[in-house]
Design goal:
The chain has helices at 6-32, 40-61, 92-96, 168-179, 191-199, 213-225, 239-242, 253-260, and strands at 66-69, 73-75, 82-90, 103-110, 113-121, 126-131, 135-138, 141-142, 155-158, 184-186, 205-208, 229-231, 245-248. By secondary structure, the chain is α+β, with helices and mostly antiparallel strands. An eight-stranded mixed β-sheet has the order 2-1-3-4-5-6-7-8, with helices on both faces. A five-stranded mixed β-sheet has the order 10-9-11-13-12, sandwiched between helices. The radius of gyration is 18 Å and the shape is globular. Bound molecules: L-MYO-inositol-1-phosphate. Residues 70, 87, 90-92, 159, 189-191, 208, 211, 215 line the site of L-MYO-inositol-1-phosphate (LIP).
């Protein structure tokens, strides 16, 4: 495995620092679960705290870069070619319910292109990262998508629209078509980790719509650097800003897309 670049060192250090606070806060949420008021105010505060740590650490190392954040929105940098796109807790609903499946997601954009991405689950201590043109890594292994070519053997992740989000009827029809043709469907609740799992070959494909750039910017790069395809569901090249994502290993893109959008 090649030595980690200076840029990746910066991203890793920021994620590890934010993760320490999130781990403490997650322990607290597990306690708050049983209280009547529930932990939602506490979780919003944890989200903001983690975002602040990420911004402080990333700005210390790269003071001129801007930000696009889930919590704080867009902050212009002195060098407008570079922008961090960060989600301090992707999978907020899981976090809020004490489910240990959430992640910090950090992407770096250079002149409108994602050039580096890192996704870290602080609870499992699994870190997935990639740089454009250099491949990716998962802890100390090389990231590589699965080689399954038959949908019948494949595990496909998705995001199911919930209250107030998405078109439930059409989604259920699509899901029905996919269900009948695959070995298993997973709805794990964290888009960045769904993409990281495709990049690591744990899942063979993933689709979801209605997402935001901070949910997917890092993960899309990871999938591509791991030898997979990441497009919009309809095939367009901009999953990050349309929030419509179809990510698969190298063989399943067309067959899965044909189920999602039947001709
Ligand atoms: C979440 C995504 C998840 C999606 C949720 C939500 P958040 O991001 O990771 O896959 O289904 O609706 O968008 O809000 O936890 O950062």
């Amino acid at each position: 495995m090649a030595l980690r670049s200076a840029l990746m060192n910066v991203m890793t250090a920021a994620a590890e620092k934010a993760a320490r606070g999130l781990k403490r806060d997650f322990g607290e949420v597990e306690q708050l679960q049983v209280s009547r008021k529930g932990p939602s105010d506490f979780v919003s505060a944890a989200d903001l705290r983690a975002e602040k740590v990420l911004m402080t650490e990333l700005s210390k190392a790269r003071p001129k870069f801007g930000f696009l954040n889930e919590e704080g929105g867009e902050i212009k940098g002195e060098d407008d070619r570079y922008r961090w796109i960060i989600d301090p807790i992707d999978g907020t609903t899981n976090f809020l319910h004490g489910i240990p499946h959430f992640a910090i997601s950090i992407a770096l954009e250079y002149e409108d292109e994602i050039v580096a991405g890192l996704i870290y689950n602080p609870i499992t201590d699994e870190m997935f990262s990639a740089e454009k043109g250099k491949g990716g890594s998962f802890n100390s292994h090389r990231l590589r998508v699965s080689s399954r070519g038959d949908l019948r053997d494949s595990v496909i992740a998705t995001g199911i629209p919930h209250r107030g989000r998405g078109h439930h009827g059409p989604y259920l029809k699509t899901l029905g078509r996919v269900m009948e043709n695959v070995a298993g469907i997973r709805r794990m609740g964290t888009a960045s980790l769904d993409l990281a799992y495709v990049a690591a070959g744990r899942c063979d494909g993933y689709w979801e719509t209605g997402l935001s750039p901070w949910d997917v910017a890092a993960g899309v790069l990871l999938v591509r650097e791991a030898g997979g395809f990441a497009t919009e569901v309809a095939g367009g090249k901009d999953p990050v800003y349309t929030g419509s994502v179809l990510a698969t290993n190298a063989k399943l893109h067309k067959p899965l897309q044909e189920l999602l959008i039947p001709s």
